[in-house]
Amino acid sequence: MARGAMEPLIVGRVVGEVVEMFNPSVRMSVTYNSNKQVSNGHELMPAVVASRPRVDIGGDDLRTPYTLVAGVSPCLKIMTDPDYPSPSDPYLKEHLHWMVTDIPGTTDASFGKEVVSYEVPRPVVGIHRYVFVLYKQARGRQTVRPPTTSSRDCFSTSRFAQDNGLGLPVAVIYFNCQRETAARRR
Length: 186
Prior knowledge:
Blueprint: H1 3-11, H2 14-17, E1 28-32, E2 36-37, E3 54-57, E4 65-71, E5 75-81, E6 95-104, E7 113-116, E8 127-136, H3 157-163, E9 171-178, H4 182-185
Antiparallel strand pairs: 1-2, 1-3, 4-6, 4-8, 5-6, 5-8, 6-7, 8-9
C-alpha cells in the first residue's frame, strides 16, 4: 500500500499512539448497519455504531487465522479507544471495545472466537477515535492469549501484540465519534 493510503492513520495519530508504522498487506472492511462503511478519519454518530459491525477480511486463505482488536486485531481483531475517557486527558487509554481471535482469512469476524464482547462506543466528552487493528496469527489458531484483566481500561494494543508474538498489524481502520447532542440529531 502506498504511503498516501497510510496518511490518514499518520495524521490521525493512530500510527504512533496505537500502532507502530506498518505495511498494510490484508484488505479489511468494517461496516455498521449493513450500509455505513468505516473510512479512516470519518465521523460516525453513536446511534450508527450501537451494534457490532461486520468486519470482512481478505487474507491468504481459510487456513490463515487473524486477530481483530477493536476500540482503540488465526486473525486477531482488536477495537480500542485511545482517547478514553476524554481526548484532553486520556489517562485510561486505550480502552478495549472488542477482540476476536482465530478469524479465518477470506471471511468475516463472525467466524472467529469473540474473546472480549463488543462494547458500544459512548463518548461523553470530545471527539474519540475508535481503531480496528488486524493481526495475522503467525503461530496458528488458538495461540493468542486473551487479556488477563477483567478491566478494559489501560489496554495496550502494541504490548498485547508483542506478548502474543503477533508482530506488526496487517490492516488498521479508524473512525471518529462524539457525543450526539439534541442539536446534532436534527
